[in-house]
Design a protein that fits this description.
The protein is built from ten helices and eight strands. It has 270 residues and is an alpha/beta fold.
Length: 270
């Protein structure tokens, strides 16, 4: 089901009365990258995939930062009536989740931080400048998101990815407006929530791909060690797009987390 709620577009599956399970995509994505998860989890949850501002039919923000994106996402949750959701954030989506928890620690029932990082580092750092230049430079030289999509996706994935998933990844990457891609990429600069990891007080799944170059598995394992209620899972041979590269494995890892950590917390709360 494709829907639009004022400023935000999103896709959803499942019963409105079921527990909300909300997915946040990465910079090159869109709500529809989570189709395999909506289909799988929609039988038991109110599964919702958000289009970030500037993606899909969601209205762009005048100023884009992790903080403004987190505020927009908080407004989205309020508009759709998703109380105490389970949040699944991929890449920059995971950064948005961390930012939101830092200001509203009780907003979620549980979180999944997938192929993400607690920090991008200082805005004037050499590595940061090189990272941004490598991704925005081709646009400056006249390339388009359509022409860049195959190369960008190829650099993100690991070994033997699911063909349909990668086709979808290319379609979504190609559809991102260049202005949105630029603004969202630049929003990474200066992000740092490392000191807040110890304050995440809900069950947390930290999920990595062993071949991920953007959010390396060793960094994510270290990240998980600072989160009190974290469980760490590494998907062998997968790159940065685990839910698309290995949809069955991703769904199984998320399902196991939901049935153990989240279910156990619910029993205690009762």
């Amino acid at each position: 089901m494709k829907t639009n709620d004022g400023r935000f577009s999103y896709q959803a599956a499942g019963d409105l009365a079921s527990p909300p399970l909300v997915f946040l995509h990465g910079i090159g994505g869109a709500a529809r990258v989570w189709k395999g998860q909506l289909d799988f989890f929609g039988e038991r949850y109110r599964a919702i995939a958000w289009d970030m501002p500037g993606y899909g039919r969601s209205t762009p923000l005048s100023t884009v930062s992790i903080a403004t994106l987190a505020d927009a996402f908080s407004n989205f949750l309020q508009q759709i009536g998703a109380s105490k959701p389970i949040l699944v954030g991929h890449s920059i989506g995971g950064m948005i989740v961390q930012q939101l928890l830092a200001t509203r620690p009780g907003i979620a029932r549980a979180v999944v931080l997938a192929q993400t990082s607690p920090a991008f580092g200082k805005a004037d750092g050499d590595w940061q400048k090189e990272f941004i230049a490598a991704r925005l430079g081709p646009l400056d030289r006249g390339e388009t998101m359509v022409s860049l999509a195959p190369m960008l996706v190829r650099e993100l994935v690991g070994d033997d990815p699911d063909r349909e998933g990668i086709d979808l990844a290319r379609e979504c990457m190609a559809a991102v407006p260049a202005s949105t891609y630029r603004a969202t990429m630049l929003a990474l600069l200066g992000f740092d929530q490392r000191s807040a990891l110890k304050n995440i007080a809900v069950p947390t799944l930290v999920l990595s791909g062993s071949k991920d170059k953007n959010a390396p598995a060793p960094m994510m394992a270290k990240m998980a060690s600072y989160i009190p209620l974290a469980k760490y899972v590494e998907i062998e041979a997968a790159g940065h797009l685990v839910n698309l590269e290995r949809p069955g494995t991703f769904n199984a890892a998320l399902d196991a987390f939901l049935q153990t950590s989240v279910a156990a917390t619910s029993v205690v709360a009762q």
